Please model this.
Amino acid sequence: MSIIVDNNSWVVVQGITGREGSFHTAAMLDYGTKVVAGVTPGKGGQKVEGVPVYDTVAEAIAEHGANTSITFVPARFARDAVLEAIEAGIRTVVVVTDGVPQKDTIEFIARARKKGNIVIVGPNCPGVISPASHAKVGIMPGHVFSPGRVGIASRSGSLTNEIAWHITCAGLGQSTCIGVGGDPVIGLDFVQALEMFRDDDETENVVLIGEIGGGAEESAARYIAESNYPKPVVAYIAGKMAPAGKRMGHAGAIIMGEAGTARSKIDAFSAAKVPVADRPSEITKLLGA
Model:
């Protein structure tokens, strides 16, 4: 069974009637994802790509048994949307929305932890895909992924796609790919992803795709070393040439002095005996392809 999303994931799309929501609903359906309902307050009774729209998440759950949500709502409404999903009983919430205020993210992550057994992925993330289950709850292009035994956890959406494509072309394929998100405050992180992959029978190897800023990669390296992690892990770090104090791409990718630099992350992985690729295309070599 795949982790986070699989063929038992019944998805409700929050913000389905918007441009992004409707576009990616069609793409998820084409991939094989079980999108059972959409939610846009005041738009109940409509249909998008044949998917019925409701005014509330609670209605979508009552009618279709949805257990997974993906949010395509403006940043100022993301907090309320995620809290609504949590309170209605959704167990997995994928927050694609960019620009969510950190205080809002802290609030809904805290609420999810208090409720217990709820996975928040993101915000500012591409989502989660499990190719063997034909389950894509996110915005990644499905054609670059293929069923296999490599688990990916990534802070970068574009690099997830590039490295997944290299892995696909090498004939390895992926078990589950998780875009953890690029914001400084996120729900599911590298350590939690590593814990999930450790217990997943479908995953034999793990790829971590990191970038400058924050300490997520260093925390992952400590976890790998201290837990004597049982599966091979390889990594790639983006932003080696980034100048200190310069924001690169999004809110999480900024370095201050020596903190959050590519070198500090590469050194942490090296100390944990995790090989680090110089280029995305080298990942497959490190995996033994």
The chain has two domains: 10-121, 140-286. The first strand starts at residue 10 and ends at 14.
